[in-house]
Write a structure and sequence with these properties.
single chain; 2 helices; 0% strand; 91% helix; mainly alpha
Length: 66
């Protein structure tokens, strides 16, 4: 699975708790939602790190071939 699909799946996994917290008013769902969002933030940071690594690799390859 690519990074985008993983990210979208993580967001979809939060949908149920969003509904429970905001629509049904369940406080426990808010706790799960905050935890899920924290994990989502970590996943985004990993993707950002990977993007920087790929950019650096591409730049190194371009410099080496020139």
């Amino acid at each position: 699975m690519n990074h985008f699909e993983e990210l979208m799946q993580a967001v979809r996994n939060l949908e149920h708790d969003f509904e429970k917290f905001y629509i049904k008013g369940q406080a426990a769902a808010g706790t799960r939602l905050r935890k899920g969002l924290s994990e989502l933030r970590k996943q985004c940071q990993e993707i950002r790190k990977n993007i920087q690594e790929v950019k650096a690799q591409r730049k190194a390859e371009k410099t080496a071939s020139a």
